[in-house]
Every structure is written in structure tokens, then in C-alpha cells.
Amino acid sequence: MASALAAKMGFNSLIRKQAKYFKVKICTMESDMEFKCEMKWKGKDLFDLVCRTLGLRETWFFGLQYNIKDTEAWLKMERKVLDHEVSKEEPITFHFLAKFYPENAEEELVQDITQRLFFLQVKKKILEEEIHCPPEASVLLASYAVHAKYGDYDPEVHKPGFLAEEELLPNRVINLYQMTAEMWEERITACYAEHRGRTKDEAEMEYLKIAQDLDMYGVNYFSIRNKKGTDLLLGVDALGLHIYEPENKLTPKCSFPWNEIRNISYSDKEFTIKPLDKKTNVFKFNSSRLRVNKLILQLCIGNHDLFIRRRRVDSLEVQQMKSQAREERARKQVERQRLQREKQLREEAERARDELERRLIQLQDEAHMANEALLRSEQTADLLAEKAQIAEEEAKLLAQKAAEAETEMQRIKVTAMRGQEERRIMEQKMLEAEMLALKMAEESERRAKEAEQLKQDLQEARNSERRAKNKLLEITSKAIYTSPGLPSDSVPQELNFSRENLSFDFKDTDMKRLSMEIEKEKVEYMEKSKHLQEQLNELKTEIESLKLKERETPLDIIHNQNTEQGTSKQSNFKKLTLQSTKPRGAFFEEL
């Protein structure tokens, strides 16, 4: 079987020698690409092809990484691609990653693509817990990651549950608190809503500005031993070399800034650091493998070169890139202001339209109510007129009956003389007739008064009808003519707004004003940093009561101790570098 495998490998090698091209697969943080490369291509040829494809000009931060067994290695620019210990199977896979990190992302990263690749790589390292991040900072970083993906917060679009499928927090942070996914989303969304007005690029930069202050940001760790055989960790980053205890990757025991190191070299597994002061002892340590020493040396040389480069005047290429970036930012700022003005005018127009529609509906309701009141008044007037007519007829009928009673009484008086008995009977009938006549007279008078009262009620109803008609005419006139302060052409149902007043000329005064605003933003940087710290403390206070102390990792405990002591990445580095070289070297040997 071994002979068959050897024969197969030999056959593949023979085919590769006879071929003119070989295939490679490049994996970036956003996508994968495949290229056909010539057999003679060096690492630089492939790297330049990838950078041109991505449109990347800040090439000094990046490299092509591949795996050798369980060790990571970087493609060397001056060697042929096939001369590296890469896989024999095609396509050969390389990962396009950031090899060196900036000291200050906001000042050093110029291109949007550079910023985007750094953002995605740092975010991945934080989520995979390769970079330790405290819980409160994790929530804030998650809110900026959401903003970088979705843009401005909109409560109508970003409703509860829209982050259910997103991976935003390290598992360590989630397990550390008695909080549901909905509770985490609520806190992340609350922070996300505060970022309104920023662009996606600005959210990515804010993410990097917070992440670069984390203790493990940009540090490559390697297991080493000093002369006494003590196991230690060597950290290589943009500022220098750091020595850590194996269980504490946050706080270095001693540091060697790049400006204090004269030379770095290795022989087999022994690594040598020569300080700038020749009178100082040379520092030596051992690593596990020769390949690791080669990787350490590559990272040291690259970080040292960038350290020196940052402290010199920018090259013409970098100056040109920064100038173009400033012009692009100014153009985007003007465009954002224009869009903001258009949005504001559109919102004002919509508010005016809504107000007109609301006023129109109100006038329609008032007109409807006035019509109903007028109808009721007309019905009441008709009813009262009918009652008054009936009362008059009843009064006439009663008067007629009273006259008839009076006639009957006179006739009874004439016939009363016929006899005593008849007289008595007649007197009784006369008395009854008088009482009936009196009653009829009283009823007639009462009916007359009632008729008079009905006439007065009819007159009042007609007056009410007249007032209702006047009110209706007044409301109708309001609906027809425009209200004060509004243009006459804004009343119709379809509102047309001219956008001619949105056009403007981009003049030098705009650029000067933008420059002044940029300077003002720099002056306000310290205030924003203070606000950021207050925001982190507030988040920490909100979730502290739900924390499970027994689930804290050793790095969590160390981070809390550093926070209580007021120790940060920058303050610790300054404190260590202020020490003299000899005590620091002696301390390293005593570890």
C-alpha cells in the first residue's frame, strides 16, 4: 500500500512538472476565488494578482496563509509558490488574511476594502474567543456589527426577533449570564438604536476602534522556554515583544518595544534578542520547533518595519491614497448632507400633507354634523308648525261650541216661563249649561295660550334653522379656500412638491466648512471616548446582576482584576517600557 501511495505521489508530481499551470483557491473573509497560475510564479506574483482582484492597495498589512500539519505558515514573496510545503492536491488552498495589525486603525487604514477585511477578521476572532472581550464590550461591539450589516435602525423594519439567526456574542459571554436570547437582543438593539445617523463604514470603524483596545488584539502568541526551562508565552504585536505567563494572556510580565531592540535572530530552536544598548545582556529563549522560530522572525521583521514606517513621513503613494480617501470622505459627506436635506424636506412635505388630510377630514366631519343639525332643525320646525295648526283648529272648534252653548242658554231662558216645574228643570239645565260654557271658555283660553306658545316655538325653530344654515355656509367656505400660511396649490388631493430648490453647487466654501467639521470632530474625540467608557460601564451595570460567577474563565477573572486596578493595555505597556532594560532582563531570566 505504501508503494502504491508513493507511486501515486510520484505520478502527481510528474504530471505537475509536465503541466504549465496549476490551480489555487484563495479564501478571503467574504468570498472564495480560484486562479490559474503559471508553474514559475513566485509568491509575490500570486499575492499581487489577489490584491489587484480585490482592488487592495494597502498590501503591507496582508499575506497568504497556509497550513503545514498543525502549524500556520505564510507564503514567502521571493520563493516560488510550489517550492513551499503546500498540498500536492489542486486547487492549492491559501487564506488571504491580515498578517500585521495597525496601532491606530482610524489613522492608518485608508481604503474601505482594507477596513472591511480587518473588521471581518477581528469580528471572527472575537466570536471564536481568540481575542478575549469583556461582556459589556461584547454587547457594544455586537450593536456596531448589526449597524454595519443593516444600516440605520428602523423600528418598523427591525422588529423583535430580527437578530435571532445572527451570531453576535461569544459563547463564553452568553453562558456567563442568566439571560435569554430575547434579553440579549433587547440590549443589543437598544445600543444599535443609539448609533442612528452613522454609515455602515463608520460603524465598522467604531467597531475596530473599540476592539483595538482589547488586551489580546493583534497579538500572536507562541510557547517558549527561558534558560531555566520555565514555560512562558511570547507575544508579538505592533508595539513590540511581550512575555506572558501561560495562564495569563492579558497582562505581560515584561515587554520589549521595537525601538529598544537592535537585532533578532535564531539558531535552530534558540531565539536571540539583542537590545539597542550593547552593554545590556542578550535575551535568549527556546521554542518547540524550528518552523516556529521562522514564523516568529517573519512577524518580528514585518512588525518592526511597520513600526519604523509609521514614525516617518508617509511615502508619496500613501499620501496620494490618503488624499484620495479625504476627497472621497468629503464627497460622501456632501452626498449624505444632500440626502439628509432631501429626506428632511420629504418628511416635512409628508407632515404637511398629513396635516391637510387631517384638517380636511375634520372639516368634513364638521360639515356632516352641521347638515345633521340643520335636518333636525327643519324636522322640529315642521312638527311645531303642524302642532300650532292643530291647536288653532281646536281653539276655533271650542269657540264655536261656546257660542252654541250660549244660544242654548238663551233658548232655555225663554221657555223657562212655561211652568214652575219646567222652570226648575230649566234652571238646573241652565246652571249646567253655564258650568259647561265656563268650562268651555277656560278650555278655549288654555288652547289659545298653547297655540301662542307653539307660535313662539316655531319662530325659535326657524331662527335655529337660519343659524345652522349660516354655520354650514361658513364651514363650506373654509373647506373651499386654503388655510392661512399654506400655498393655494397645496389644497388639492394630489400634492406636488418641486425639488428644484434641492439643487446646489459644490463650492470651495463647502470643502472649507467640511474641513472645519473634521477638525472639530478630532477635538471632540476625547469627549466621545469618555462617552464610550460611560456606555460600557452602564452596560456592565445592567447585566452584572444576572452574572454567574462560577462560570467565569481565568481570563475573565484577570480582566476584572485589571479593571479594578485601573490597568489597561496602553497604561501597562507604558509602565513596562518606562522600566530600565537591565531590571527587565533580569526579571525575564528569573521567570
UniProtKB/TrEMBL annotation:
It is a peripheral membrane protein. Signal peptide: none annotated. GO terms for cellular component: cell projection; plasma membrane. It comes from the Eukaryota. Residues 22-311 form the FERM domain. It is found in: Cell membrane; Cell projection. Residues 322-348, 554-591 are annotated as: Disordered. Residues 324-348 have a biased composition (Basic and acidic residues). The keyword Cell membrane applies. Keywords: Cell membrane, Cell projection, Coiled coil, Membrane. Residues 559-582 have a biased composition (Polar residues). CDD domains: FERM_B-lobe (cd14473), FERM_C_ERM (cd13194). Residues 515-552 form a coiled coil. The keyword Oxidoreductase does not apply. It holds the Pfam family FERM_C. This is FERM domain-containing protein. It comes from Poecilia mexicana.
